[in-house]
Design brief:
Protein name: Succinate-semialdehyde dehydrogenase
Pfam families: Aldedh
Radius of gyration: 23 Å
GO biological process, one term: gamma-aminobutyric acid catabolic process
CATH architecture of the largest domain: 3-Layer(aba) Sandwich
Family: Belongs to the aldehyde dehydrogenase family.
Keywords: Oxidoreductase
CATH topology of the largest domain: Aldehyde Dehydrogenase, Chain A, domain 1
Shape: globular
Distance between the termini: 71 Å
Length: 477
């Protein structure tokens, strides 16, 4: 029987052996797979102190040397890909092949931002007089505190940690209590890579106590969070007192539009890949499907044919495509939304059933047709393997339906018409837009939402800017 008993990683030391433990459970079986210490404010303060002490020397390192540490970490994580993937599947439930892919995705940020470390540019400005010189430089913001979610327990850490370390910041992460093992395994890799003590810290435990330390300590100059909009708003309010920089990657409610001139086979391939990965528990997962009336029935037929071959089960089995939902409340939300839609007139084309037993919660890939805008599933993010499909007539109608939400993280559309595509890509009120592409996330491009979906971007050249301050220097000579 698997049993990972790991400790917090604070200022280069493995600590918390005497603390109360948080049990980590495999969502596919309900069985305990390990434990971590339940830290609180005191432990978070120790991590902050260590990170602050390490900041001056780490930020003083030449960028190329900070990059070398990230490249070494990437190499170690890739060497340990199978181990990291298995732990991720055990604590998160996603199929092993998806977990392997997440390790590759996570390490891509280490490579990208290692390279970006050498491209933190300033500029000179012509002086106002003969003896006047002006320049602008970029410097690291300082100690960074990150709060990461359970659905991508490795990638959501490196997407924040890599640009922070590349910029010269030191870093503390509080991972989800549901999936802390991946974070601590990354800490093991950091230690093996020789990253100096205090530069990278992991504190698992009480969200309230740890969060209080993050928000009240002045030396924490940056908060970065991925999670719900409600929690993000709370953190923004709390960060105001310390005037801390904040990046927020919050909830989404992504539309997926299929126009009548689309390559339907391509659209089906993309929706199956994007909708059902991680059992639909993805912030950029297509959540509302809008299909033009002339291809409505043919699209649904092809979609159902493709989706019915997906196998639901324990992610450690190689042929499984869809794993469990992470916990009971997520399962109950999916059940409720499906029942609400059917009661209001939707037709279940595929799936529509779940299985809850022994603390494990599975839900079949589900397709609903004849969906209308008054159904809860079209207004509240599902976070589950359910695809509700609504018919539309005109492109203007599709845009209106897609934008009718306070959220603005990701949106997708499929068309072979450049004029239609240009209208949709410019008209959709979202931070990420996929044109004939429902899997657009990559280290080289910015990832972030607008409206209630967040502030700031992760990835791309924009990602490292989130961890830098701008300093203007005016000099008389």
């Amino acid at each position: 029987m698997t049993n990972y008993s790991l400790l917090n990683y604070i200022n280069g030391e493995w600590t918390g052996e005497d603390l109360k433990k948080i049990e980590v459970v495999n969502p596919a079986t309900g069985e305990k797979i390990g434990s971590v210490p339940s830290a609180g404010k005191e432990e978070a303060l120790a991590a902050i102190k260590g990170a602050n002490a390490a900041f001056r020397s780490w930020s003083a390192l030449p960028a190329i040397k900070r990059a070398d540490y990230l490249f070494k970490l990437q190499e170690i994580m890739l060497d340990r890909q199978e181990e990291l993937a298995k732990i991720m599947t055990l604590e998160n439930g996603k199929p092993l092949k998806e977990a392997r892919g997440e390790v590759l995705y996570a390490t891509s940020f280490l490579q990208w931002f290692g390279e970006e470390a050498r491209r933190i540019y300033g500029r000179t400005i012509p002086g106002k007089t003969e003896n006047h010189r002006m320049s602008v430089i970029k410097q690291p913001v300082g100690v960074v505190a990150a709060i990461t979610p359970w659905n991508f327990p490795a990638a959501m850490i490196t997407r924040k940690m890599a640009p922070a370390l590349a910029a010269g910041c030191t870093f503390i992460v509080k991972p989800s209590e549901l999936t802390p093992l991946s974070a601590l395994k990354i800490a093991e890799c950091c230690e093996e890579a020789g990253i100096p003590k205090g530069v990278f810290n992991v504190v698992c435990g009480d969200p309230k106590g740890i969060g209080e330390a993050f928000m009240t300590e002045d030396v924490v100059r940056k908060i970065t969070f991925t999670g719900s909009t409600a929690v993000g708003k709370l953190l923004l309010r709390q960060s105001a007192d310390g005037v801390k920089k904040a990046s927020m990657e919050l909830g989404g409610h992504a539309p997926f539009i299929v126009c009548d001139d689309a390559d339907v086979d391509l659209a089906v391939e993309n929706i199956v890949a994007a909708k059902f990965r991680n059992s639909g528990q993805v912030c950029v997962s297509p959540n509302r499907l809008y299909v033009q009336s002339s291809i409505y029935e043919s699209f649904i037929s092809k979609f159902a044919e493709k989706a019915k071959s997906l196998k639901v089960g324990n992610g450690l089995e190689e042929d499984v495509n869809v794993g469990p939902l992470i916990e009971k409340k997520g399962y109950e939300k999916v059940e409720h939304q499906v029942h609400d839609a059917i009661e209001k007139g939707a037709t279940c084309v595929l799936g529509g059933k779940g299985r809850a037993e022994n603390g494990a919660y599975f839900y079949q890939p589900t397709i609903l047709k004849d969906v209308t805008s008054d159904m809860e599933i079209m207004n509240i993010e599902t976070f589950g393997p359910v695809a509700p499909i609504q018919k539309f007539e005109t492109i203007d109608e599709a845009l209106e339906l897609a934008n009718d939400t306070p959220f603005g993280l990701a949106a997708y559309f499929f068309t072979t018409n450049v004029s239609t595509g240009t209208k949709l890509s410019e008209g959709l009120d979202y931070g990420i837009v996929g044109w004939n592409d429902a899997l657009p996330s990559t280290a080289e491009a910015p990832f972030g939402g607008i409206k209630h979906s967040g502030l700031g971007s992760e990835g791309g050249t924009e990602g490292i800017e989130e961890y830098l301050e701008t300093k203007y220097i005016s000099m008389k000579i």
